[in-house]
Amino acid sequence: ITVGEGNSKRLVAYVVAELTEGLVHTLHSHISSKLPEYMIPTAFVRLDMLPLTPNGKLDRRALPKPDVDSFVSQGYEEPQGEIEYTLAGIWSELLKVERVGRNDNFFMLGGHSLLAVQMIEQLRRINMEMSVRTLFNTPTLSALAQSLNKSNATTEAPKNLITRDTTKITPELLPLIDLTQDDIDLIVDQ
């Protein structure tokens, strides 16, 4: 069943099943092997019985919203570091999930391309740059944070070693390029 509105729509499976450990993972693994990605529910809500209307039809309004245990997670581990906490807050808000751990996957928590674009925009507002490709390549919180940390790190340019008093340019004075003295002499002569 599709729940939510607008960009927060997600596919939720309601399952009448015995309460067993790992049920959500088992269902997700089984369905993932049978269906294309876009048809895989982001949450699996276990029920003792389906709510019915007086006419015996499914009462959609009585279906509970997915809780934190309904989503496929990798076992909660608290985010570490400023970037992970920032991402966890953004994901929690966008995905309408109470808590996001460092091993959670953006797409398994209900993320999709529209939400990815919204996340990138929120990151841009706080001066962090990321591409959609980066998210698809590193969809877990900790891996994405590590990728963001590397791509947003500022690199200092080396100090300019050539001064007004320099009479000859040598390879040591050009730390950003690998030239021999012969190469430098040829350039200077031209």
TrEMBL record:
Signal peptide start and end residues: none
Superkingdom to which the source organism belongs: Eukaryota
One of the GO BP terms on file: amino acid activation for nonribosomal peptide biosynthetic process
Keyword Transferase: no
Keyword list, A-Z: Ligase, Phosphopantetheine, Phosphoprotein
Residues annotated as domain Carrier: 78-152
GO cellular component, one term: cytoplasm
InterPro entries: ACP-like_sf, AMP-bd_C, AMP-bd_C_sf, PP-bd_ACP, Ppantetheine_attach_site
Gene3D superfamilies on file: 3.30.300.30, ACP-like (1.10.1200.10)
Protein name as annotated: Carrier domain-containing protein
Organism for this UniProt entry: Entomortierella chlamydospora
